[in-house]
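Example record

Each entry pairs one chain with its bound ligand, 5-O-phosphono-beta-D-ribofuranosylamine.
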Amino acid sequence: MPKLSIAVFASGGGTNLQSLLDSSKKGAFDGEITAVISNNSGAYALERARNAGIATYHISGKKFPERDRFVEEILKTLEKHNVNLIVLAGYMKLLPLEVVKTYRNRILNIHPALLPKYGGKGMYGINVHKAVIESGDRISGATVHFVDEIFDHGVILIQRTVPVLPGDDPETLAARVLKVEHKILPKAVSMFA
Ligand code: GRF
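Structure tokens for the complex follow.
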């Protein structure tokens, strides 16, 4: 019985989820992804999970407008799979406080910049890389950190840098950072395990 039962929350394309799925198959960490949860029913991340035979759940504020029901739905799903590690992999929402409290020190997030710089509200996706380029910084990178009640704020577990090149635009920088994300997220999970 693998040590870790991992729930992944994703809102978008799910390439970070895919890197976890591939690493799990290679035995990179002693754990298995048992549930994938998205606030976006059209997220390709859900398709990736279905292709891998993993249980998928669409849990969103729209679907569960009653906040208590929304929180209960998340907690119920996590309990159902005996989850002991939550990974936010491109999840665009703030986890409810009740979930952060119940799973304190068992929630990881991947962020496409070198936190604490370029983190916090509004700093997600391409906005991050735009800000890095506009700042004139010569390096960027990715961060995996523990999640607490504040966006992009918890203790950092692993970071890796990439150069910002003279001809970069936000898209070319995003692609370079994403490659590093795919390396450090599975590494962070195996460190946690
Ligand atoms: C990644 O850049 C991640 O750092 C950010 O959102 C993006 C998710 O990409 N949080 P994907 O959905 O894993 O491809």
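Residues 10, 12-16, 45, 89-90, 110-112, 124-125, 178, 181 surround 5-O-phosphono-beta-D-ribofuranosylamine (CB under 6 Å).
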